[in-house]
Design goal:
Strand content: 25-35%
Helix content: 25-40%
Radius of gyration: 16 Å
CATH superfamily: Class I glutamine amidotransferase (GATase) domain
Shape: globular
Number of domains: 1
Order of helices and strands: EHEHEHHEHEEEEEEEEEH
CATH class: Alpha Beta
CATH architecture: 3-Layer(aba) Sandwich
Distance between the termini: 20 Å
Length: about 210
C-alpha cells in the first residue's frame, strides 16, 4: 500500500513547486491538504513556507486543529517530517521579526535577522551556497555536502548545537538544517536546488528514523 505523504497547505508556501519536486524525487503521490484528519493519518509530512515568520505562523494557526494534528502525528506518532525554509523556521521556539511570535517549539531556538557584519555581504541571503553537514545531529545522514539555493533574511539560531544538522557560510556561519528525532528542517529550497535538492527529497522519502 502506497504511503500517504501530506504536503501541508496553509496558504504560505510554494505548494506546486514542492509537490512537483517530491513527485520527481520518487513520491508515489502527494496529498496537498490542510485537513487535520489527513495529517493525523499521514505516513510523512512536509511543511513548506515562504515570507515572514509571523505571517506564516498566523496562517498555520488559523487552520483549526492543524498544529495539534501535526504535533500528534510527528512528536507523538513519530512520522518523518520535513520543514522547508520558513517551514523549518517555524520549528523554533520563537521568531523576532516585527515583535516576538511563538513558533511550534519543536526545536529550541530563535529566528532572528541575519546581521550584516561585512558591507560586501548582501541581506537577504539569496542564491547558491555550500551546505556543510554536521554529522552529530539526528537525521544528519540525510544531508550531504553540496550546493543548495537559499533565499532568506532571517536565520535559525538553535539553542542546542547537537540539533544543527548542517551549516552554510554567508559572512559567518548560518544554520542550513536542523534535526531531532524524526524531524528535519532545511533553510534552503530543495525544490529550487536542482539535482542536490531532488537527492535530498529522495532520501527523505526513504527515511525510516
Amino acid at each position: 500500500m502506497a504511503e500517504v505523504l501530506a504536503l501541508v497547505d496553509y496558504g504560505a508556501g510554494n505548494i506546486q513547486s514542492v509537490r512537483n519536486a517530491l513527485l520527481t524525487a520518487g513520491a508515489d503521490s502527494v496529498t496537498v491538504t490542510s485537513d487535520p484528519a489527513v495529517v493525523r493519518a499521514a505516513d510523512r509530512i512536509v511543511l513548506p513556507g515562504v515570507g515572514a515568520f509571523a505571517s506564516c505562523a498566523a496562517a498555520l494557526r488559523a487552520v483549526p486543529n492543524l498544529v495539534e494534528a501535526m504535533d500528534e502525528r510527528v512528536r507523538v506518532g513519530a512520522a518523518p517530517f520535513l520543514g522547508i525554509c520558513v517551514g523549518m523556521q517555524l520549528l523554533a521556539t520563537r521568531g523576532v521579526e516585527h515583535g516576538e511570535t511563538p513558533g511550534l517549539g519543536w526545536i529550541a531556538g530563535e529566528v532572528r535577522a541575519i546581521e550584516r557584519t561585512d558591507p560586501a555581504i548582501k541581506v537577504p541571503h539569496m542564491g547558491w551556497n555550500d551546505v556543510a553537514p554536521m554529522h552529530h545531529a539526528d537525521g544528519a545522514g540525510l544531508i550531504e555536502p553540496g550546493e543548495a539555493y537559499f533565499l532568506h533574511g532571517y536565520h535559525f539560531a538553535a539553542d542546542e548545537g547537537r540539533e544543527v544538522a548542517a551549516m552554510t557560510d554567508h559572512g559567518g556561519g548560518l544554520v542550513a538544517a536542523v534535526a531531532r528525532d524524526t524531524i528535519l528542517g532545511v533553510q534552503f529550497h530543495p525544490e529550487k536546488s536542482q539535482a542536490y535538492g531532488l537527492s535530498l527529497l529522495a532520501r527523505f522519502l526513504q527515511w525510516k528514523p
